[in-house]
Design goal:
468 residues, alpha+beta, Glutaredoxin, 6-stranded antiparallel beta sheet, 11 helices, 40% helix, 24% strand, binds zinc ion
């Protein structure tokens, strides 16, 4: 089986007390049970079958393991198509020492062995949406999971840029930029937020927010002009811009003449990239295995206690018939428990293997993310090359460039390179401290210009002419 997507949804707020954690766990399990029943399951315990929408052979299994106040319940749904393709969705709720965690995986495989290409287009399971819709905050590690966020204005954009840079961020952010209130493809921001619910946060940003991203992250790592970008966790200032896939508005609109077809293709592409990353890098909560191991240990202790109790009884047996009854029940009980324990041991070995495999997968992902070229080669809608920064394009002596102020910050002006405004009212500017600081910020090492002039005709913000 190949894992194609994984989700972690954590509840941590107001869960200091065991009773609160149990109540929350029960509430979430009820949401999953309702989903299962809605699929046609007759009961929400043990095993059973249901009618899959596509006529697949569908079955489910519900297992609960407890260790004192902690418990783990897993709902495993398995669907086998007439062609022998198998899909398994596992949803588990762990009531832990500190929190309540939902862990969801989607796997695909074949019933019979064959070497074939398996094309999958994983989509967010309805149960994940149902859980996210429950009141209260959801976390994935240090990051809060959010629905579509509208980010308007420079200050909001600056806050988003800082959140993108936050070293503790654990989920990807997809940023969709708007021009005059419009995304490059119809409702692209809403559609991506729908597709990526639970695995990535989606932000829809306006022009001013884009300027803030350019100011904080620099141009090669910014998103503007109707572009879409995925920002992966652990983004550093000197990060390779290719690591964070970017599709410009031009690229998005040239996918297909029909905007609806273009929209479907980019949605599928972004979904595939983010889901694949989740499958390889989301780590199974360790408390699941702690609970299972503790439960296995206490079962073993119970077996020993039972054995010694039976020994006591045997010693006290007054008749041969009584002794025989006790001996029989002892043997039967012993065999049953021994068998169960052996099964549990095998399961634990498999789990240990799984943890090792996940760790290897994670390493592979880190490598893969570094190899952005390989990713973009495999990509259906190839991402664009990020634009260069002003500082990466050294001006030549005598060269003239024009810059316009987009926003004023207390210490400096945020400037952007533009075309000549066409006016002829250029004036020397002795008092242009904020503009100079903004330019120096933009140009890095190439800040030694010959002249700096201000346009007297342009309205709405400063227009500057710089000559080297
Ligand atoms: Zn002008």
């Amino acid at each position: 089986m190949q894992k194609v997507a994984a989700y972690i949804l954590e509840r941590t707020e107001d869960l200091q007390w065991p009773d609160a954690r149990k109540a929350e766990g029960d509430r979430l399990r009820a949401v999953i049970e309702a989903w299962l029943k809605n699929k046609g399951a007759s009961s929400v315990d043990g095993t059973g079958t249901y009618a899959a929408v596509d006529g697949s052979d569908a079955s489910y299994q519900v297992t609960t393991v407890a260790d004192g106040e902690r418990s783990w319940r897993i709902f495993e749904l398995s669907e086998v198509t007439p062609e022998g393709r198998k899909f398994v969705t596992s949803v588990s709720v762990t009531i832990g020492h500190k929190n309540v965690v939902v862990f969801v995986t989607m796997e695909v495989g074949s019933v019979a062995t064959s070497i074939t290409r398996i094309d999958v287009d994983p989509k967010c399971p309805k149960v994940v949406r149902d859980l996210l819709a429950q009141p209260g905050g959801w976390l994935h590690g240090a990051s809060r999971l959010r629905g579509l966020s509208q980010v308007d204005g420079f200050d909001a954009g600056e806050a988003l840029a800082l959140e993108i840079q936050n070293k503790d961020r654990t989920i990807p952010f997809a940023v969709v930029s708007r021009v005059l209130g419009m995304t490059a493809l119809p409702k692209l921001d809403e559609k991506l937020a729908h597709d990526l619910a639970g695995v990535a946060n989606v932000y829809s940003i306006d022009e001013d927010a884009s300027w803030a991203l350019t100011d904080v992250l620099r141009k090669p790592l910014s998103t503007y002009g109707g572009a879409v970008r995925i920002y992966w966790p652990r983004l550093a200032g000197n990060d390779d811009p290719f690591r964070h896939q970017l599709w410009t508005a031009t690229r998005l609109q040239s996918i297909d003449a029909d905007p609806k077809t273009a929209l479907e293709r980019i949605r599928r592409q972004v979904r595939a990239i983010v889901m694949r990353a989740s499958a390889a890098s989301v780590v199974r909560p360790s408390e699941i295995d702690e609970i299972r191991e503790a439960a296995a240990r206490s079962e073993y202790a119970a077996l020993q206690a039972k054995a010694s109790a039976l020994e006591d009884l045997k010693a006290k047996a007054s008749s041969l018939a009584e002794f025989k009854d006790i001996a029989d029940s002892y043997a039967a009980e012993n065999d049953k428990l021994r068998h169960e324990l052996a099964a549990r041991d095998t399961e634990l070995d498999q789990l240990r293997g799984e943890v090792k495999r996940l760790e290897a997968d994670k390493q592979a992902l880190i490598f893969q993310l570094g190899q952005a070229k390989a990713i973009s080669e495999a990509a259906e809608v190839e991402p664009d090359a990020p634009e260069q920064d002003e500082a990466d394009q050294p001006p030549t002596p005598g060269e003239v460039r024009f810059y316009k102020k987009t926003h004023s910050k207390p210490a400096y002006d945020v400037l952007v390179r533009v075309a000549d405004c066409g006016h002829t009212a250029w004036r020397g500017a002795a008092k242009a401290d904020k503009a100079k600081k903004g330019l120096a910020r933009l140009l890095g090492d190439h800040r030694e210009w010959k002249s700096l002039q201000h346009c007297g005709s342009c309205t709405g913000g400063g227009m500057w002419k710089v000559q080297w």
